[in-house]
């Protein structure tokens, strides 16, 4: 299915769910805001299939993404609320900015990642195929966290295995790795303290 935005490029719905077709395309929509039908209804935005947004996208409510769904934008993706990914979700964008806690199954980011929340927690793997910028002290919890681009910013803790496929992890705060660490490249870990 295909959807177009209003004059302000904003799409509003009730408890917002896209389930109609295997591939959904949004043209001219840059801001997604759900609003509750009643005060007792939780406001959420749910993507149940592959979704392409032909612009940057700002999500102003909690987002739920079904297993194996791919969310692709021509610009950045900004998640101002919590994000709940199902298994094997893929985010593709110039930059994916997580401003709320991420809790779910497993995901991959194709593009740069900005983490402006304190917690990213998945039961499966997390794979970052671009640079990762930490705007807060971040706790990554996963079976394995794969860093495939340079990591910079504040401090980090990884609860689970870490695969370092980049040359640089450079933080102003401490780095703590509570599982096995596999270095696929000649990596340099720079921090006041690195705890392995």
Give a verbal description of the structure.
The protein is an all-beta fold and 196 residues long. It has no helices and 26 strands. It has a 22-stranded parallel β-sheet that branches. Strands 3-6-9-12 form a four-stranded parallel β-sheet, with no helix packed on it. The protein is globular and about 40 Å long. The termini are far apart. The model is unreliable at 1-22 and 34-41 (pLDDT under 50).
Helices and strands in order:
Layout: E1 2-4, E2 10-13, E3 16-18, E4 23-27, E5 31-34, E6 45-47, E7 50-53, E8 57-59, E9 63-65, E10 70-73, E11 77-79, E12 83-85, E13 89-98, E14 102-104, E15 107-115, E16 119-122, E17 126-128, E18 132-134, E19 138-147, E20 151-153, E21 156-164, E22 168-171, E23 175-177, E24 181-183, E25 188-190, E26 194-195
Parallel strand pairs: 1-4, 2-5, 3-6, 4-7, 5-8, 6-9, 7-10, 8-11, 9-12, 10-13, 11-13, 13-15, 14-16, 15-17, 15-18, 16-19, 17-19, 18-20, 19-21, 20-22, 21-23, 21-24, 22-25, 23-26
Spatial gap, N to C terminus: 49 Å
**Can you give the mean pLDDT?**
83
- Label the structural class: mainly beta
Beta strand %: over 45%
What share of residues is helical?
A: under 10%
How would a crystallographer describe the biggest sheet? 22 strands, parallel
Tally of helical runs: 0
> Secondary-structure element order, as H and E?
EEEEEEEEEEEEEEEEEEEEEEEEEE
What coarse outline follows from CA principal-axis ratios? globular
Could you name the ranges where pLDDT drops below 50 across 5 or more consecutive residues? Answer: 1-22, 34-41
Query: How many extended strands?
Result: 26
C-alpha Rg, in Å? Answer: 17 Å
């Amino acid at each position: 299915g295909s959807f177009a935005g209003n004059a302000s490029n904003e799409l509003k719905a009730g408890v917002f769910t896209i389930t109609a077709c295997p591939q959904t395309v949004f043209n001219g929509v840059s801001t997604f805001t759900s609003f509750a039908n009643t005060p007792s209804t939780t406001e959420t935005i749910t993507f149940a299939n592959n979704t392409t947004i032909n612009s940057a996208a700002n999500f102003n409510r909690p987002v739920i993404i079904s297993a194996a769904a791919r969310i692709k934008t021509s610009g950045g993706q900004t998640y101002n609320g919590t994000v709940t990914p199902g298994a094997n979700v893929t985010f593709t964008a110039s930059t994916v900015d997580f401003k709320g806690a991420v809790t779910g199954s497993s995901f991959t980011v194709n593009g740069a990642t900005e983490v402006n929340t304190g917690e990213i927690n998945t039961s499966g793997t997390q794979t970052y195929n671009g640079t990762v910028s930490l705007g807060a002290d971040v706790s990554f919890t996963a079976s394995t966290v794969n860093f495939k681009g340079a990591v910079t910013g504040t401090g980090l803790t990884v609860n689970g295995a870490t695969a370092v496929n980049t040359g640089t992890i450079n933080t102003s705060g401490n780095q703590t790795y509570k599982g096995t660490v596999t270095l696929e490249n000649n990596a340099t870990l720079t921090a006041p303290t690195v705890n392995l």
